[in-house]
Amino acid sequence: MRLQNTLRREVHIRGTGLHTGRQINMRLRPAPRDTGIVFIRTDRSHAEIKASVTSVSDTTFATTLASNGVRVGTVEHLLSVFVALQIDNVYVELDGPEVPIMDGSALPFVTRIMECGIARQAKTLSYLKITKPIVVKEGESQIAITPYDGMRITQRIHYRHPLFGEQRLGIDITEKNFITELAPARTFGFLKDIEVLRSRGLVRGGSLENAIVLTEREIVNKDKLRFKDEFVRHKILDTLGDISLLGLPIHGHIIANRSGHTLNIKLLKKILLSDGCWEIVSDNGAETQAIGLTA
């Protein structure tokens, strides 16, 4: 068990929205214990959207949350930082419909939050312990979670591309591992898809400054990859952010093969429906039911 955490002080961040192309002002504010992560649209009458699997409204090329018709998108990178740095209670204020993409990685968020500092709160945090495997399959894609002492993600990706046909990596999720091995990994996409996506109102803010762009044979960006296997590392980062929407830390080993946002959320929903496969561990010991968690 550990104590809950929040930010020591406010953090102000400004950047471009990946899909809208708008300049977004984001303010991260300390929140009381047991608040969780709450997004607030300051441009929409301060509408609040809880970071929860029940709030997920879309998983097309990013994870989008919604409440009462108000949306906030591209939340997964920021959420992955909160998980890794063990920040449990934060108000995320935005004057637009998505979290800024920054350089396409989670590193700028880590840097600003570490400069701000983290404050402990006088209440312990329960966690969800996986006791039996849970599996979701969809075509050639699969994601599973198995018992594990701590949190680990093993991810495999496969593309028909000469630079990275297949990449696989397994890593324990700790603050140190996240900061050095996952946070710098950038999002990526294919040049041939950009015009189609923009015609659908997506990636209007995408550029070589915030994504790795690939043609059928090479990388368009002039700067080198940050890791030889940067692509799978970014997928792990995305998975970590999505999994945080369960609302509690998870002790388990996530094993993903060709998984994306949609399958990640389906796994969360199946976890919530598989109450014989997990238990909530709190100050009172282990309980088989999680009060307040619903699919």
- CATH-derived topology of the largest domain: lpxc deacetylase, domain 1
Query: Which residues sit in consecutive blocks of at least 5 with pLDDT less than 50?
Result: none
Largest sheet: 8 strands, mixed
Task: Report how far the terminal alpha carbons are from each other.
Answer: 25 Å
Structural class: alpha+beta
In CATH, the homologous superfamily of the largest domain goes by the name lpxc deacetylase, domain 2
Mean of the pLDDT scores? 93
Describe the fold and architecture.
The chain has 295 residues and is α+β, with helices and mostly antiparallel strands. The chain has two domains: 2-125, Ribosomal Protein S5, domain 2 (2-Layer Sandwich); 127-287, lpxc deacetylase, domain 1, CATH 3.30.1700.10. It has helices at residues 76-84, 107-116, 175-182, 191-199, 230-243, 261-273; strands at 2-7, 11-16, 23-30, 37-41, 47-50, 56-58, 64-67, 70-72, 90-94, 118-125, 127-130, 134-138, 141-146, 151-158, 166-172, 188-190, 212-214, 250-257, 278-282, 285-287. The strands form five sheets. Strands 11, 12, 13, 14, 15, 18, 19 and 20 form an eight-stranded mixed beta sheet that branches. A five-stranded mixed beta sheet has the order 2-3-9-4-5, with helices on one face. Strands 6-7-8 form a three-stranded antiparallel beta sheet, with no helix packed on it. Helix 4 links the parallel strand 16 and strand 17.
